[in-house]
């Protein structure tokens, strides 16, 4: 069935301006459905033909400037009608239907503004920010914000654009963004791939928001370089733990790090650890019972003697109810590098490395408990943590 389409111009006479002019309105009708909006143009009612919906020259007027303005006005109205018709035709050819509101939004540029990459980036990041401290971390939010900024810079440098409609993104844009990150931002392959992954997340967010388009990532292959994550042996952990440091700051960093080695908790969970997270288990011993900050997964972690001794060392001595002397992650990593040098450990030690250490040593817990405790934010990390703990069970359960 053929669609009926019409564009009409009429005057909004109930709100005249001081000079007697009134606004020219635009009405779009498709199959009986209508939408109207201001053309941002105005005219004196005496110069308007209601039936024709066009401006006419008032023959009795001697104002040549006004008559000239009326003549150019009709040309503008014709251009508006032509543009609206073009949007209607495009929608019918692409979607098979056209709604008056969608035609209006396309003409006014609202449709493209609402469905562009950067606008979806903004929407996603604003929503993500509300999850920080609950089911998301500030660090991950900052990474999404940085990805948005890199995308803005990329579009400006490569295409001279401030934004781009999502539907116009192709696999070529993805590949060019990757190359921009490698060459202009001088990041590694894996870091660039992480940026591209977050780019893909935004497109998936756009789809979940109701935007229909073909995902260009269907033709893109992620290629991560295999890296040696590294780990600390029990001997190296003991060396760090029993080392006497002259500096209190190194001692504090060492204690927090060793606590993580024996519990598997990452920096974000150690930082927020409170007395409410320490509870007595069914075995009568102390356990950490805490939701993981990054994944939201509930964890049950038994406290061995060394982490218990570390907690006892700082009990009641820290401000704001903190259990451990945790400083910023950046400073922790700087001091850990210093600790590694002092202990003559020829490895790049970061706080994240604690998760890869052979922790949960001599634990008398079941494999089922292990699986529950080591759920990480990606399959590879979970697998590494599972194996590292499973291989350290020294007793038959």
**Mean pLDDT over all positions:** 83
Note poorly predicted spans.
Answer: 358-380, 382-397
**Percent strand:** 5-15%
Q: What profile does the largest beta sheet have? A: 3 strands, antiparallel
Could you name the key traits of this structure?
three-stranded antiparallel β-sheet; elongated; mainly alpha; disordered C terminus; single chain; 47% helix; 14 helices; 8 strands; 397 residues
Could you please describe the fold and organization of this structure?
The chain has 397 residues and is mostly helical. 47% of the residues lie in helices and 12% in strands. The strands form 3 sheets. The protein has a 3-stranded antiparallel beta sheet, with helices on one face. Strands 6-7-8 form a 3-stranded antiparallel beta sheet. A hairpin with a 6-residue loop joins β7 and β8.
Write the layout of secondary structure elements.
Elements: E1 5-12, E2 22-30, E3 33-43, E4 48-49, E5 54-55, H1 64-94, H2 100-108, H3 110-114, H4 117-129, H5 138-159, H6 171-183, H7 189-208, H8 234-242, H9 248-263, H10 267-271, E6 278-280, E7 286-291, E8 298-302, H11 305-314, H12 329-342, H13 367-373, H14 379-390
Antiparallel strand pairs: 1-2, 2-3, 4-5, 6-7, 7-8
């Amino acid at each position: 069935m053929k669609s009926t389409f019409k564009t009409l111009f009429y005057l909004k006479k109930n709100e005249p301006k001081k000079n007697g002019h009134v606004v020219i309105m635009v009405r779009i009708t498709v199959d009986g459905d209508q939408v109207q909006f201001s053309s941002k143009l105005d005219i004196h009612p005496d110069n308007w033909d209601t039936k024709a919906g066009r401006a006419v020259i008032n023959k009795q007027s001697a104002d040549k400037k006004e008559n000239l303005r009326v003549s150019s006005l009709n040309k503008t109205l014709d251009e508006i009608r032509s543009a609206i018709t073009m949007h209607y035709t495009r929608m019918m050819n692409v979607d098979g239907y056209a709604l008056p509101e969608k035609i209006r939004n396309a003409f006014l540029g609202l449709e493209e503004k609402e469905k562009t990459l950067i606008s979806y980036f903004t929407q996603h990041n604003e929503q993500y920010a509300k999850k920080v401290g609950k089911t998301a971390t500030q660090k991950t939010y900052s990474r999404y914000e940085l990805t948005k900024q890199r995308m803005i810079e990329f579009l400006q440098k490569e295409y001279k654009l401030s934004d781009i409609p999502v539907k116009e993104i192709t696999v070529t844009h993805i590949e060019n963004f990757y190359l921009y990150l490698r060459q202009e931002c001088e990041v590694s392959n894996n870091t660039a791939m992480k940026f591209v992954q977050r780019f893909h997340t935004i497109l998936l967010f756009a789809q979940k928001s109701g935007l229909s388009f073909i995902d260009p990532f269907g033709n893109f292959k992620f290629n991560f370089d295999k890296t040696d994550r590294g780990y600390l042996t029990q001997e190296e952990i003991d060396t760090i733990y029993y080392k006497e440091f002259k500096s209190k700051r190194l001692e504090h960093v060492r204690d927090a790090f060793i606590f993580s080695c024996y519990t598997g908790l990452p920096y974000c969970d150690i930082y927020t650890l409170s007395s409410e997270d320490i509870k007595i288990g069914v075995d009568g011993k102390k356990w950490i019972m805490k939701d993981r900050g990054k994944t939201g997964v509930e964890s049950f972690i038994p406290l061995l003697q060394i982490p218990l001794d570390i907690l006892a060392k700082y009990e009641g001595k820290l401000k704001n109810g903190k259990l451990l002397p945790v400083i910023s992650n950046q400073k922790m990593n700087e001091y850990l590098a210093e600790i590694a040098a002092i202990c003559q450990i020829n490895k790049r030690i970061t706080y994240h490395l604690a998760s890869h250490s052979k922790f949960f040593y001599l634990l008398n817990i079941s494999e089922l408990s292990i699986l529950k405790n080591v759920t990480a934010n990606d399959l590879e990390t979970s697998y590494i943590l599972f194996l590292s703990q499973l291989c350290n069970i020294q007793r038959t359960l």
